[in-house]
Every structure is written in C-alpha cells, then in structure tokens.
Amino acid sequence: SGPYTQSTLNVTGIHSVTTVSKVSVKAGGSISIPCLYEPEYTHHVKYLCKGYTWELCSYSVRTDQPDSSGKFSISDDKQQRIFTVTINNLMMKDSSFYYWCAVEINLMLFVLPQGWPQLFVDHQEITGFNGEHVTIHGSYSNTGEIEWCRLGRSCVKKPSGSIDGTRVTINANVPKVFTVTMSGLRTESSGWYFCTKGGLQMPVHVTVKERPSTSKDHSTIIKSSIYPLTFIIPLSLLIFIVMVASFIWFMLRRHSKSILSFHESNHQYLDCF
C-alpha cells in the first residue's frame, strides 16, 4: 500500500504483522524495529526470528522468553498494537541474515563498517507537546525521494502534507541532510513513523504529551514576591524606629533648651536685684 517498500505477509492460523523492510545501522550501534499487528492478535506471543528463510529461522527473542545475552529485547504495547524489537551491538555478520517480525515479514538489516548509515536519524525516540511541533533531523547517502510515513497508514512527500490531521513539512534543501517537522500535534499523533528513501526506512517513535501545568511557575512568582517582602518589612520597621528615636531626641533636646533658657532668664532677673 503506497509507493514505499513495505511487506505484509500472512500465515494461516498465526497472525499478520506490518513493519519496515530495510534499515541501515552503523557497526556497534543499535536499532529499534516497530511491528504493527491486527487487534485479534493482541494476546498472542510476539517474537523475532533470524534466518535466511522463514522455515529455517530461529528465535532470537520472544515476549514470553526474554533474551539473557542482552543482544535482543522486545516489548509489547497492546493498546497501540505494536511490539518493538531492539537489536544491540550490531556487527557486520548481523547483516548476513533476514529478520522475521512475528510472521513472514523479512527485515533486511545493513550494518556498515564505518561512516554514517545510508539513512540515519539523530533520535529514534522523540517527545512533543499537544498543539506544538517536533522536528526530526536526519541524513542520507543514498538516492531516491524522501517520504515520511506513519506505520500502517499514509505517507507524505516533500515539501508538505498531512497525516491524520497533523501537518508534515519535509526540508531537504541541504545536500545529504533533511528535517521532518510535524506541526499541530495531538495526543492521537503518538505512535511509530518512519522516513523512507531509496528503498531504505528508518523508524521513529513520536510521543505527544500535555505540557506540564504552569502552577510551578506561579509558585515561583509568589516566592519571588515574598522574598522582597521579607527584606522590606524589617527595613521599614528599622526606618520607623529611627524616625521615632530622632523625634524623641529632637523633643528632648528642645525641652532641655527650654529649661536652660528658663534658668538663664531667672538668673538675669535675680541679678537685677
């Protein structure tokens, strides 16, 4: 479905899964692969199988049997109906196999000995806030048209378009570099996406959250207004005390001058006699 490469295979009596088909990874790195399944298989065991053919492949990791070596990990989001397989510490020999996501959906994994992968994104996990936007930064060394797709849904070609009501803008004006901006995010925008170019895909998971409450900012404003008050009140009290003391000192001095003047007047009066 669509102009991009995507394999969806069915096996009678088991289940069907949709995933990306080709990814490139730098040697020593890791990759997370999202696998979308149908609602009727929510409670089924999910797994990754490795081999040249489906009939000869062997289990690498299962949701009911974690991998103790740390090479593989798997998690199942039953609400989104997506299970995610992560392959760590990838080596050149890993690209010699096909990887099967639950059923006959082969994943070709290209591990490069040096340099950047043919299709690369800075982060496979990105978080944004409701009503705002996120930007995915990537690079490439292969040919072909860049598209941004939602797993199991529609795709957008440059320069822009929309997916499920979210505006998508693709900028590839700089050679070998591209950005994808998703604007007007909604909670429903959360999920797995992937960029595709020249037959390669790179998955990206987008999480959309509500921006945290500004109550913390209000408390900061209140605190900042309290701190000056704790300084102003003692200062005002000190000024008041100084003014009262000055007034008392002034009155006492005035009173003492009055008494002195009185005594001097009496002394002059007595001298007249």
Q: Using only CA atoms, what is the Rg?
A: 37 Å
**CATH superfamily (homologous) name of the largest domain:** Immunoglobulins
Strand content: 35-45%
Low-confidence sequence ranges: 1-15
CATH-scheme architecture of the largest domain:
Sandwich
Overall residue-averaged pLDDT value = 79
**The first-level CATH class name of the largest domain:** Mainly Beta
Largest sheet, order of strands side by side? 1-2-4-8-7
Q: What structural category do the secondary elements indicate?
A: alpha+beta
What characterizes the major β-sheet? 5 strands, antiparallel
| CATH topology group of the largest domain | Immunoglobulin-like
Distance between the termini: 132 Å
* Number of beta-strand segments: 20
Give the CA-based shape: elongated
Order of helices and strands: EEEEEEEEEEEEEEEEEEEEH
User: Level of helix content?
Assistant: 10-25%
Secondary structure tally, helices: 1
Total discrete domains? 2
Protein name: Immunoglobulin domain-containing protein
Main location: membrane
Subcellular location: Membrane
InterPro entries: CD300_family_receptors, Ig-like_dom_sf, Ig-like_fold, Ig_sub, Ig_V-set
